[in-house]
Amino acid sequence: MQAHTSPSAAPPVSTSAKVVTPDGRAVPWEGFCTGPAVLSREELQDISHRLLGLGLSEVPAAAREELEPYGALRCEVPAVVIGAATSLKSCFEADVAHLAQGTSPDDFAAYNEARAVYLAGPGDLVVGRTEPWRQAVAQADVDAVEVPGLEFYYLTHALLTQATAYETAGPSAGLRRVVSRLREAPHSVVRLFALDLEAQILLVWMRRTAGLARLRVDANGPEIGRRWNHKTTLYPTVGEAEGMSGAGPRTDPDELLAAESRLTPFHHEFGIALPRVPGYSISRSGASPAEVAARVAGAARLLRERYGLPLGCFKPATGLTGSRIRTGVRLDDDEALGALARQAMETEEDYVLEAHTDYLRHAVRGYEFILAPSTHVVAGRLADGATLQITRGSVWEGSVYIDESSCRNLGVTVEQFRFVREGMRSLLAAFEGGGRSLGFVKGGVDFAIARIGGRFGERPVVGMQDLNLSSNGAEYVRAFLREAREVRGAGVHAATKVIRPTGGTDLPRLKAAVAAAGAGEYSRAITSVPSRWGLVAVASREPQEAAEAVLALEERLLAEGLVRSALRHAG
Q1: What is the reported pLDDT for 284?
Q2: Distance CA 303, CA 401 (A)
Q3: Which of 28, 78, 98, 369 fits as disulfide partner to 105, beta carbons 3.0 to 4.6 Å?
Q4: Which of 54-71 are b and which e, b meaning 16 or more Cβ less than 10 Å from the residue's Cβ?
Q5: Could you tell me which residues come within 8 angstroms of residue 157 by beta carbon, excluding any fewer than 6 positions away?
Q6: What region, left, alpha or beta, does residue 220 occupy, with left being phi > 0 and alpha being psi -120 to 50 degrees?
């Protein structure tokens, strides 16, 4: 998708804009808070030369030298918050995919800008440009810098175009305020979703313009985002697996899985085999349709022949929130596998085909959890506890905080709880041990506690399924938990829930409704992007109570006409 050709121009968002879907259709870009303009690689190359005197290939090295990954909790140090969506997670492509399918997009750009305000402390400087963002800052004790560039999908792209006109901008221009804040408080940290290439260009320029020795960034180092923040990290390629000796149908499946894990990129680099389910990576970049089809078919054959598995799960390597996942794929269905290969050809993304997981489940009033716990690194340290995901199908829709004393209340055994935390501890040690540091300051890992069948039989397996090595949804349940414990005491637990607001449900209206529905619970409306996406939170004494309360809150909002649907009691 091409942006405007002139990086310094900033026309208003077109109400008649269209985007081209992967299958070549032009569809209207309607109902978004931003336009669909996305800077091309050539335009980013030109901007990088103009701002830094560097080609794009030289930027990561400059970022390693000039930016310092620095994990900091809210209020620990002054912060500049830039809640930009990221190209590392293909946010724009995910919204376009929804348009192509005729389903409601999330508007990742708008909700990332708006919800990031909740991670700012009193007096922090928060950068944004959308109406949901304005409403969030109006209800927060923060300083706000509103910037132009609403025609651009990514906030970083808008800021980069403004940086090229910095020398001629007036003294009140947004970027001048940001640079002045960094110059006045050089110990500040810039908090953002992920340090993608666009953010690296922007922040290296900010450091140089502000005259700082180094610029602290509350995001992982560039290598983590570029090399490790995708699912293929956990899986060997089909070719590598096929070349492995001694892999027969009589090989113990656990030994076979361990041997294949030694072929993964992560093991090659760090010598550590992370716990996972069987599966294989499928490289799309530069491959012909026939090559991709052969790789998909080869992955399906290996899962059938080596592990006796009937079903698979097909995932984009950099997908966000679980969207665009195809579950229950018959591994002996040539037609279905061919359709997956054609899906993979629509973009330049890599994919994985892994075992289909029949998650263990735990029911609370009106809802049944799949046991898909997540563990996290916060401020460079293994975070307390874990979270259990609220999901709609394969899509993440919220988090419930659990700890060792309460995990059994939601069906996770103490042994499983400790196992997933040790998995994250191993990941942290790999990135930050052995005499090197990649700047791992935040991120999460999603696990499956599931039966996969085949030669594994009915026994449950526990394995990593997704690496979210950037800002993630659990940051918000953890931030809310800290807030709730300051008010209600150390013993409370918390849950968040993604909601789908109606067109008239802006943040002030949602906040008033959540306050009226409190009924003794400690609750909060965090974000609302009308017609698209919102987030609410509730705290209670036990995790199942928090989960039931936040789902009941969503139901009440549905009854009042403030949201389009409710997960609890949904068929």
Answers
A1: 84
A2: 34
A3: 98
A4: bebeebbebbbebbbbbb
A5: 3, 37, 38, 39, 149, 198
A6: beta
Ranked by mean pLDDT, the top range of 53-57, 72-76, 170-174 is 53-57
Residues 129, 133, 138, 143, CA torsion sign: negative
**With DSSP H G I counted as helix, E B as strand and the rest as coil, what are the percentages for the chain, rounded to 5?**
40, 25, 40
Residue 207: count of CB within 10 angstroms of its CB: 25
Residue type present at position 330? R
d(CA 412, CA 404): 9
In the block, residue with structure tokens 């059938």? 304
**pLDDT surpasses 90 at 229:** no
> Which residue type sits at 401?
Y
**Residue from 257, 275, 261 nearest 418 by CA:** 275
Identity of the amino acid at 63: A
pLDDT in tens, 294-349: 999 999 999 999 999 999 999 988 765 556 788 899 999 999 999 999 988 887 78
> Distance (Å, rounded) from C-alpha 113 to C-alpha 157?
13
DSSP secondary structure string for all residues of 192-224: ES---HHHHHHHHHHHHHHT-S-EEEES--HHI
3-state secondary structure at position 468:
strand
Cβ neighbors of 463 (< 8 A, separation 6 or more) are 275, 276, 277, 447, 448
Residue 314 has which token pair?
Answer: 């097909």
pLDDT in tens, 389-441: 999 887 899 999 999 999 999 999 999 999 999 999 999 999 998 888 999 99
Would you list the DSSP string of 284-309? -TT--HHHHHHHHHHHHHHHHHHH--
CA separation for the pair 163, 168 (Å, rounded): 10
DSSP string, 27-90: EE--S-SS--B---HHHHHHHHHHHHS--GGGHHHHHHHHEEE----TTTS-EEEE----GGGT
520 Rama class: left (phi>0) / alpha (psi -120 to 50) / beta: left
C-alpha distances out from residue 317 to 38, 348, 350, 401, Å: 21, 11, 5, 26
pTM for the model: 0.90
CA separation for the pair 314, 140 (Å, rounded): 41
